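Both lines are given unchanged directly below:

***
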Amino acid sequence: MAETKKIVRLINTDLDGELSIGRALKEIKGIGPSIAKAICINAKIDSRAKLGDLKEDDIDRIEDIIKNSAFPSWTTNLRTPEKKMHNVSARIDFELRKNINILRRIRAYRGIRHEQNLPVRGQRTRGCFRHNKTVGVQKKKALQAKRAKK
């Protein structure tokens, strides 16, 4: 009988070999329950089997399915008119940073708000989003101690 692997490397992510395939795939950034189920169906693998028990060619097949975005178009996380693809892992952060930089470059309102570290989606700033500012009133004892030091 083949030995169960403790850690399986998939899409630059270390996954626990003791978990079922469906649960382990959800640990990859950008893959949720529905995408994990779609991957298992496309790869013709039981989602309840342990990830550590898979053969190397099965792991390669799963990785190939994820890289080629073989999912229905409504499940993808990057939908543009010219292409529909599903980003995973570090590619999500790269695309987000690229989109924010485009907004900054064209001087869009959202880009300016990103630059100033202020809320982008219309939230109020009176009570929240206060960075490095004192909020509230100082107590009398604290004020007296401050005056005594001077």
Remarks:
- The domain at 7-75 is CATH 1.10.8.50 (Helicase, Ruva Protein; domain 3).
- The chain has a mean pLDDT of 86.
- Residues 90-105 form the longest helix (16 residues).
